[in-house]
Design goal:
Number of strands: 14
Largest sheet: 7 strands, mixed
Number of helices: 16
Radius of gyration: 24 Å
Distance between the termini: 86 Å
Length: about 375
């Protein structure tokens, strides 16, 4: 009896589609780093073992330090906050050379977690950032953790590390994947009667290679063939759910929904980009810094983030998926108009949305106008 056994080459060609694509590899990489695992990033110079400072444990920190001289990577904003630059903060990743005993508490303090200063570690700017360093920072921002990483060069230990089952990738592939416009696919849709309108629908969109979801909420029955009233709204748990007086997000959301209901309907694009894209944990850290005297932009910079880390391209993609090309945009933020226009959405009118001003958010709104260009009365 002849039994057919495919050759190794035939077997590979028939099952190659089961392997992870680059975007899926990046998703796996992000997940491992979020769990506190290390990953290996390759660039032209060498291989580097990388771990996010926020997710490190004492045990894994000690193991990394035994491999060789470690260095820390932060953003230019964080390096400036540490007093390493007197002028303008550099862009991109900054390498920090660590001298002295380095504890996890020291690294947390250097990264901006907590309000303590490093007790033993001394830092100075290191050499030029490589692709592996840039990729480590971009990955952290994409997962909304503090953008700070511990990096160990693996020139001498690479064969040993490959036996640990850690995810490894080319840093340039990581950078290109994170810079690409995220795909959006509608995975579910249902009618939903709401307080402002019995007629409404919720579209759930998922981002490719990610668990991230965004929502398109139809209020009433808007005619999608005509310019549609649209509100591009970033999730704000504290404002939308808790009724925080520190921002105007909750009143803006409810005001937009009511205005759409009173008119010909509209669409709320609810993007899960909490805290201007830095996540709720970092947003609460920023609130603590604001209590100490910083404004909202300064607090973001102190933590290592830019003024605004949101990606509004997702909103444009969702509108295209819904067949909407012309909109009346309810916003005070010119950046939203610019991004949507650059991605093929014609903004025929800007509809101001001036609601929710309180004594508690007066400084916040003034900062948005002065530093972020918001159009406020």
């Amino acid at each position: 009896m002849n039994i057919f056994r495919p050759s190794p080459d035939d077997l590979y060609s028939n099952t190659a589609a089961l392997g992870p694509r680059i975007g899926e590899q990046v998703a796996r990489l992000r997940g491992d780093l979020r769990l506190g695992l290390s990953a290996v990033l390759f660039d032209e110079a060498s291989a580097s073992l990388v771990a996010w400072v926020e997710n490190l444990t004492d045990e894994r920190l000690a193991a990394m330090l035994r491999l060789g001289q470690a260095e820390m990577v932060v953003t230019g904003r964080r390096a400036a906050a540490l007093g390493l630059y007197s002028g303008a903060a550099p862009t991109g990743a900054v390498r920090l050379s660590l001298q002295g005993a380095t504890s996890l508490a020291d690294l947390h303090a250097l990264a901006g977690r907590g309000d303590t200063a490093p007790t033993e570690a001394v830092v100075t700017p290191g050499g030029p950032a490589r692709e592996a360093h840039e990729a480590a920072i971009l990955l952290a921002k994409s997962e909304q953790v503090l953008p700070a990483a511990l990096v160990v060069d693996l020139s001498a230990q690479e064969p040993q590390i490959t036996q640990l089952g850690l995810v490894s990738m080319q840093a340039r592939d990581v950078i290109a994947t994170l810079a690409a416009e995220p795909a959006q696919a509608c995975v579910s849709l249902a009618k939903l009667p709401m307080a402002v309108s019995d007629s409404g629908r919720v579209h759930v969109f998922q981002t490719g290679n990610s668990s991230e979801e965004h929502y398109a909420i139809e209020i009433g029955n808007p005619d999608l063939s005509k310019p549609v009233t649209v509100r591009l709204h970033s999730a704000c748990f504290t404002g939308d759910v808790l009724g925080s007086k520190k921002c105007d997000c909750g009143p803006q959301l409810r005001g937009a929904m009511q205005a759409m209901s009173d008119d010909a309907g509209g669409v709320i694009l609810y993007l899960n980009q909490e805290g201007r894209g830095i996540g709720l944990a970092n947003k609460m850290r920023a609130y603590g810094l604001q209590e100490a005297g910083l404004d909202t932009v300064e607090a973001n910079h102190w933590l290592g983030f830019e003024d605004d880390e949101r990606d509004f391209r997702a909103g444009a993609t969702i509108l295209h998926r819904m067949g909407i090309r012309q909109i009346r945009l309810m916003t005070n933020n010119p950046a939203k108009i610019a991004i949507l226009s650059a991605h093929g959405i014609e903004v025929v009118e800007r509809v101001p949305l001036h609601v929710g001003h309180t004594d508690c958010n007066e400084r916040y709104l003034a900062t948005k106008a002065a530093k972020s260009g918001h159009l406020l009365p």
